[in-house]
Amino acid sequence: MRKNMKKRAALLLAAMMTVSVTACGGGKTPDAPSDADLKKDVQEYITEVVDESAKISNFRVEDSGEGKNDTYEANCIVTYANDTMQYVDEFDLSYEVKDNAWNLEKCKVNSDYAEKSSQAVGADTSNAQTDSSGAAEATTEAAAATATQLSDKLEDYTFLLEGDVYQLPFAYSVLADKGWRIYSSGDYDDTKINGNSYDDITLQKDKKTIDVYIINASGNAKELKDCNIGGISVYGSNKNAPEFSIAKGIKVGDKEDKVREAFGSPTDTSNYDEYNSLRYGEDNSITRIVCDNGTDEYNDAQVEIKNFVATEDDKKTETSDEVPEYLSTYVAPTELGTDPLSYNIEIENQVYTLPAPVSAFTDNGWKIASQEDSVPSGQSLSYAIKLQKDGKEIEASVTNFADYQTKPENCAISSLYFYADDTKNPEVKLPGGITIKSTSDDLKKWAGDKFDYSKSGDSEYYDYYDDDNEGYIDINCKKTVSSMSVKKETWPSK
User: Fold this and answer.
1) Which of 117, 167, 349, 420 has its CA 20 to 30 A from that of 188?
2) 315: left (phi over 0), alpha (psi -120 to 50) or beta
3) Which of 228, 247, 235 is nearest to 168 (CA)?
4) What integer pLDDT is reported at residue 100 of this predicted model?
5) Residue 123 · residue 197 · CB < 8 Å
6) Residue 139, class by beta-carbon neighbours within 10 Å (0-12 exposed, 13-18 middle, 19+ buried)?
7) Preceding amide of 355 cis, omega within 30
8) Confidence at residue 34, expressed as pLDDT on a 0 to 100 scale
9) What is the DSSP code (8-state) at residue 146?
10) Residues near 167 by beta carbon (within 8 Å), at least 6 away in sequence
11) Residues 6+ positions from 328 with CB-CB distance below 8 Å
């Protein structure tokens, strides 16, 4: 499945998990894993291997099917996030039958896959991307584009490209002035990059190509040409790769023993038949060196360095008090309706549709009890605002659809969560009459075939994922509803 992936070289990680699928009969191949099974495995994998605090927000199965000799493979696009970072990665899952159940034998993660034009690199501009190793202090201002010489230290994030030495991050315009031009489809100099976001693009010069990360570590949206280069990747499979090396002259294709001799033991390793991946550094300031093992015809070798840190100018982003004009286009629904996929929701006898301006709630008597300081342009912030009314409470996530950083009160509520054991819950109803008090039978009739269904122990899960609207509806039930969440992160006029 690796050869069907996008141009990025896959970064492999492995895990062993078993899907609880009942076999059709003794010795027969089990039923294929459901999308819910695949999502559960990926979530467990992310929790155990990638980031224990990260949760899946969007999950899509691109391709799946049974292979030879009782194998099953699935390719999934997964959006997941923690409190400050959002990722969109491609997961290749490989299963084998053991004890009449599908057992996850291998998980390939292509962490360079980017489904959207830009993804979050942080949510707090005041502390934007200053990693624990002090890389920000070691990094020159982006405007000072080139270093005088190639450093021997990885943490200086210098590299040699076609005879010139650069230090990350630096202004995109520096490479543009050197003759590098955007080569990837759909990206232009005036492409908008949201606040605290990045885009990965391909640049070309004299038929030679490189892949770079464009970062905007400020809170306001910028055009691509005004952003910084935060990282670069060069692949052994690229027949048009330029002259490129990093600290101590390490190049793409160097053997693992040479890399270890130069830099010592890596922070993390992933070893596979095809290649070994060595990572040095943490968080958003890393060097990743992939050493091809020569076991097949494909060249997996890769060198990638990233230093996603904010410059002093980025840190000076001001939070605007201006109320965005787009909020005035919101129209509240006149009735709740019966379509569960309308994103309508009734709260304390008032009907809203998500995303809804915070002002739509305050106009109905809700008071802001607390809120986060700011939300960068184009970003969502979980549990960013708390609203109270008559002893009831709503803790909501918001999305800032404006081109500038502003307060949560000037954003749109894009995600709501309610739990049956919360004594401060308001009266909540979904289209078709589903409430926290609804039973399992009520849910079955209501969900029909529009929702994915799964069960674990005495818990039942009804999930609907809407990639077009970056939305979902999740309902968990133990005889009666135990929790419900509704999310939609696209504005109708956007």
Assistant:
1) 167
2) alpha
3) 228
4) 80
5) no
6) buried
7) yes
8) 84
9) B
10) 139, 140, 144, 145, 146, 147, 151, 156, 157, 158
11) none
Q: Is 471 left (phi over 0), alpha (psi -120 to 50) or beta?
A: beta
Compute the distance between CA of residue 474 and CA of residue 462 in angstroms, rounded to an integer: 6
In three-state form (DSSP H/G/I as H, E/B as E, the rest C), the secondary structure along 96-114 is EEECCEEEEEEEEEECCCC
Q: What are phi and psi of 397, to 5 degrees?
A: -95, 150
Structure confidence at residue 148 (pLDDT)? 63
pLDDT value at residue 192: 95
Of the candidates 117, 41, 55, the one whose C-alpha atom is nearest the C-alpha of residue 85 is 55
Radius of gyration of the chain (CA): 24
What is the rounded CA–CA span in Å between residue 463 and residue 37?
Answer: 12
d(CA 490, CA 207): 38
Give the number of residues written for the chain.
494
The pLDDT score that the predictor gives to residue 145 is 54
pLDDT digits (tens, 9 = 90+) for 101-118: 888 888 888 754 433 333
Confidence (pLDDT) at 67? 63
Helix, strand, or coil (residue 225): helix
Q: For position 293, what pLDDT does the model report?
A: 92
Pair 164, 158: CB distance under 8 Å = no
Q: What is the pLDDT of residue 125?
A: 34
Enter the tokens of residue 28. 């027969």
Separation between Cα atoms, residue 262 and residue 246, nearest integer Å: 11
Question: Can you give the pLDDT at residue 133?
Answer: 39
Q: Name the residue with tokens 């990722």.
A: 87
153 in helix, strand or coil? coil
Other CB atoms within a 10 A radius of the CB of residue 148 amount to 8
Residue ranges, the chain, pLDDT below 70: 1-28, 67-69, 83-87, 111-148, 493-494
Burial of 214 (0-12, 13-18, 19+ CB in 10 A): buried
Question: Do residues 439 and 487 lie in contact, with contact meaning Cβ atoms separated by under 8 Å?
Answer: no
Q: Amino acid identity, residue 189?
A: D
